[in-house]
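Protocol step 4 of 5: obtain the predicted structure for the target chain.
Materials: sequence only (see below). No template structures provided, no constraints applied. The aim of this step is simply to have a reference model before the mutagenesis design in step 5. Sequence pasted as it appears in the construct record:
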Amino acid sequence: MQNKINQNTDFEVRSLDAMCINESNIQHKWYHNIKYLIIGVLFGIVFVKSEVISWFRIQEMFRLQSFHMYGVIGSAVVVGMVSIWIIKRFNIKTIYGEKIEFHDKKFNKGQIYGGLLFGFGWAITGACPGPLFAQIGTGASVVIVTLLSAIAGTWFYGLWREKLPH
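Step 4 output (structure tokens):
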């Protein structure tokens, strides 16, 4: 009986953690992903034009000298809230007809630690994961160090995940 319980542990952890909830089972050809490249490039252009990737704008935000970044982040939060409400209210499915599921997550102290660590890294480097690639694309090659650090941090989290507060 004990072996049967241990076999399902990974599945139970994944379901409780809400990992890969909306993972699609549809297999596509490699060129099917070109649309994501195009959207990513357009999104990067929007980041550059809106000055979201500007180290100076980010520093202004953390020094409470400008509303610009707070306005961008706040409008993104509102758009996200409205989008989720619409998806739930009208039971909207993915473009391929698959159901979109939302699962509640419990609040815990690990989120505070992670948020503080993320915020400190953002303030020090002037970059968060979204704009990293747009910054590199504009020629700010020093941001490659930040990208490599983000990858190392993600690897470190995966390595120590079971021992960290969740």
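Step 4 remarks: The chain has a mean pLDDT of 83. DSSP finds eight helices and no strands in the chain.
Proceed to step 5.
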